[in-house]
Amino acid sequence: MEIKVRVKTRASENKIFEKGGIYFVHVKASPEKGKANKEVIKLLSRHFKSPVRIMKGFTSKEKVLRIDEE
What we know:
The protein is α+β, with helices and mostly antiparallel strands. It has one domain: Conserved Hypothetical Protein Mth637, Chain: A (2-Layer Sandwich). 20% of the residues lie in helices and 40% in strands. It has a 5-stranded mixed sheet, covered by helices on one side. Strand 4 and strand 5 form a beta hairpin.
């Protein structure tokens, strides 16, 4: 399954919410050296209880992620 994600970095807390079919992920991490991407993957993997990987948007705030359903 693929989902659209919009990321906000340097947030005050880590959180996930969905609105209009888009997942909004706020992470405390900064975008340098892939830290925010790692945090996004970690949070969404826990949320969906499945492995997650970025398909598009490695350097963008808007991403497409694949959730590997088990």
